[in-house]
Each structure stands twice: as C-alpha cells, then as structure tokens.
Amino acid sequence: MSVSPWYRHRWPWFILGLLGGSVTLSLSLVVIAVNNPVNLVSDNYYEAGKGINRSLERELLARRLNLQARLHLDELTGEVELRLSGDSLPPQVDLNLLSPTQPARDRRLVLNRSLGDTGRYVGQLDDRLAGRRFVEVLGQDAQGTWRLFEEEMIEPGQALILGDEPLQAAP
Fold first, then answer.
1. Residue 108 in contact with residue 126, Cβ under 8 Å?
2. What are phi and psi of 163, to 5 degrees?
3. Mean pLDDT of the chain
4. Which of 51, 139, 140, 164 has CA atoms 20 to 30 A from the CA of 83?
5. What whole-number distance in Å separates Cα of residue 92 and Cα of residue 139?
6. d(CA 42, CA 24)
7. Which of 161-166's residues contact partners 24+ apart within 8 Å by CB, and which partners?
8. CB 127 within 8 A of CB 152
9. Is the dihedral of CA 47, 52, 53, 57 positive or negative?
10. Among 130, 137, 132, 119, which Cα is nearest to 157's?
11. DSSP state of 43
C-alpha cells in the first residue's frame, strides 16, 4: 500500500487557503484603516465645547436680526447665488458647505454682494455638489458675527432655505 504525500490531498490545501485568505484580508483591512483615519473625534474637546457656546450666540444674533437666506447652486455653471433678507446685509458673507464625515469634501466660499441687488450674493464653485451637507452662512454686523446653520440634502436644481425657524422670545 502506497501512501501519497500530503501535498497530493485536497484538504491540507483547503485549510491553508482559508488561513492564507484570512491573513491577506486582515492585512488589507489594516492597511485601509491606517491610510484612512477617522477624523470624527476632536483632540481638543474643551475648545470645541467653548466653540459650541460661541456658535449658539451667533445663531441667536441671526434670529434677532430676522435673517433668512435662499441658496441656489447652479449645476451647469457652478454659480452660487444667495438671497439674504433681514436686518443685516454685509458686503460679503462666508458660505461653508461641510460634509458630515469627509473633511476633504468640504467647500468654503466667500460670496460678494451684487452691486445692483443689495440682498443678492454670488460666488463660484469649482465642482458639483450633491448629498448631505451642513450649510453655514457667516456674516459680520455691527453687533458681531451672525450665523445661519442647517443640515440639508443638496440636490441638483433645488433651492435651500436657511433660517426659516420663527424667532422665539428669550426667557
């Protein structure tokens, strides 16, 4: 009776294949995790907490000034048009379109007031945007910096309304 060597049987190769596949998959997942770190955790949580209070003050100022904005992103030309109404019309505003999970997809623009129309601000985007974003409009007033901020789903051709919540009386 002749016994064939181990490498002529299929079961050792099957077991070695499973082990080799799991090692390869594990190493590739480690490489992906190292190359794409998660940026959701703030190292300086105390400063982030103080920033939340400043942010709330800016949003309350925008409510006191009765600010409302209508934002339209032109998909073909990349033009960004913001129509601002309320008691503050600064010469320029900052528009931040922030991705909740991918900082590389954030877009920051300075929108300048149109000469003919005092409530119209325009700017230019280099690329098309779609998907969920935090939309932030910042402006300067004699009373300080105000902020309109909302989470929106950006879809081509759809206008976004910011600051449409009614002003509530302070306690």
1. no
2. 80, 30
3. 85
4. 51
5. 7
6. 32
7. 161/68, 161/69, 161/70, 161/71, 162/68, 162/69, 162/70, 162/71, 162/135, 162/137, 163/62, 163/63, 163/67, 163/68, 163/69, 163/86, 164/68, 165/63
8. no
9. positive
10. 130
11. S
CA distance 91 to 79: 18
**Do residues 105 and 89 touch, judged by C-beta distance below 8 A?**
no
**Closest-CA residue to 99 (of 76, 131, 72):** 131
Mean pLDDT by 10 residues, the chain (171 residues): 86 95 97 83 65 78 91 88 91 92 89 87 88 92 90 86 59 39
Q: How far apart are the C-alpha atoms of 11 and 27, rounded to whole Å?
A: 24
Residue 70, classed as helix, strand or coil, is strand
Give CA separation, 11 vs 16, 22, 23, 141, in Å.
9, 17, 18, 76
> pLDDT tens across 43-85, in order?
666 666 666 667 788 888 989 999 999 999 888 888 999 999 9
> Would you say how long the chain is, in residues?
171
* pTM over the 0.70 mark: no
